[in-house]
Amino acid sequence: MSSTEQGTSSAAPAEPTTAPESAAAPEVPESFYYVHGKDKVVHKVSAGALQHSALIHGMISNLGYTEEQAKANPFPFENIDGDILQMVVDWCNQHKGKPTPPEDTNLPKQKEKLFDLVLAVNYLEIKELLTYCCKQVAMMVKGKSPEEIREIWMIPTDAEDEAAEKEAKKRAGKEAAGETAAAAGDAK
Amino acid sequence: MSACQLESIPFVPLRHLLKTMSIYNLIELSRTSKLWKEEIQTMQIIQPGGYRITIDEIGSSVEMAKQDCKFYWNRKEKSKLLEYVFGCYRYLNSIFPGGINHLRICPTYISDFEKIPNECQILSIGIASEIYTEWDLESLDNFSNLDILLNHVNFRKGLSLNGPKFLIPENSKMLNIDWLKVENSESLTSSILRKLKNKIINLSGVKFNEKEINEYLWDLKQGNGNEKLQILTIQREDGKWNDDEVIKGLDTYRVGKQVYYLEDYDPLIESEDFLPYHSENRICISDSYEFRRSDEIRCTIEIRYSTIQIFVWNH
User: What InterPro entries would the database entry show (chain A) (predicted)?
Assistant: First the structure.
């Protein structure tokens, strides 16, 4: 077929057969949700980042939480310290929609923070981050002796365990005796 | 929020944490307190797949079959060495239970045999003779009775008598265990051979002549032999077997290449050379002779220079 038959100049570029991609797939605006910890500081997190947390993802999809509702009522995590929640939010944002690397070197080095992070991540059900945290906690005792492990992880000795058990039994006995006495008083 | 106490960690992350720890670290953790020892036992973090224990003249070791974990000791005073080895095994087995798959021990430890755990799957006694000193070999001249060891240890699947010289105990357990291997069988008589009721037998360095093998095959054919027998390997130290003498009067027929499949193949059988050359449960037999037993079961005899292999197709 010649160009004249088409009624166009031969120099004119051929018409594209498909529409440009930008026109076909308009970008969907990302939705955001809000969370706060013990310190009540509200953190804004994208839905994509929150997918890491099976707990929050389940709350959003099962309860049909909308962005507006979430803005008015941020997800409360009263059992998580503000700085720990900030760490979790940062991690989720950094790893949004990305495959997680085999190691994460940005985890806290202080053991108190790391233990708190383990508890928070376990509660929020963030599997990959939990794996990193557990590896990091395990690294604390790599090559250490039982005495050193006991010190690092604050493990009581058998004698201390036995003493604590005796103490607990004694306390329970006293409490039971107190309750019986109170019940007898009530009966009078 | 938390103190850094390990016991503050809930079950799921704790299990996760313990799984990321090396076996050596878990062992150290189990030694911190009774509570953590019990915790590691209960959680069954590691599956050792059984243990292999070696106690010989060069060194001794305890290793896990399915984990990259091995403890070893160099030559030490014998009684102390046994304490270390079995102390180590008993501790490991208490936190990662698996039992002993294979126990290899030198006969020179005879005076300490009662210290040995009394249960294993395969028991091997002795190693290659070049390992032993002259003194060791001399001490074995007075070594009369392996029964102490064989009576003490309940070996469930196999027994391997590896030398350094002829070691034949007068023990009924040897005659009845499923897998038997005897190195240095020069003093093994044909009457002992007839008493063997094992499934897999490997005898090296035998001094039998063709007539004795022929008589054994006659018994087998007439249904008076070892009914459990699946594979028997008999190897001479030197010299070729005379095929005609071995099969004389048995009314055999020639068969070409075929494959023998071992019944109930157990990978533990690989711990020692109980079987002839094979690939898992497959054993290739080249040109051979066959006869049928009185109960119509086929018996194949493969003769290759100094080795005779007898396969009974009783499955």
Answer: SKP1, SKP1-like, SKP1-like_dim_sf, SKP1/BTB/POZ_sf, Skp1_comp_dimer, Skp1_comp_POZ
Do the chains contact at B6 and A154, CB–CB below 8 Å? yes
For residue B180, give the H/E element and its range: strand B179-182
pLDDT in tens, B23-75: 999 999 999 999 999 999 999 999 999 999 999 877 899 999 999 999 999 86
Residue A164: inside a domain, yes or no?
no
Specify whether the CB–CB gap between A34 and A40 falls below 8 A: no
- Judge contact between B8 and B2, C-beta under 8 A: yes
Are the Cβ atoms of B13 and A131 closer than 8 angstroms? Answer: no
> Chain B, 131-160: which have a CB under 8 Å from a chain A CB?
none
Domain-embedded: residue A34: yes
How far is residue A76 CA from its own chain's centroid?
Answer: 13
CA–CA dist A54, A40 (Å, integer): 22
Option in A81, A119, A146 nearest B31 (CB): A146
Which residues form the domain of A108?
30-155
B158 CB-near residues (< 8 Å, 6+ apart): B121, B122, B123, B177, B178, B179, B180, B181, B268, B269, B271, B272, B274
Q: What is the pLDDT of residues B252-291, one digit of tens each?
A: 999 999 999 998 899 999 999 999 888 888 999 999 999 9
Distance from CA of A102 to the nearest CA of B (A): 13
Does residue A43 sit within a domain? Answer: yes
Q: Is residue A178 part of a domain?
A: no
Domain count, chain A: 1
Q: What is the ipTM, given to two decimal places?
A: 0.74
Residue B124 neighbours by CB under 8 Å, 6+ apart: B102, B103, B104, B105, B159, B160, B162, B271, B272
* Element of type H or E holding A53: none
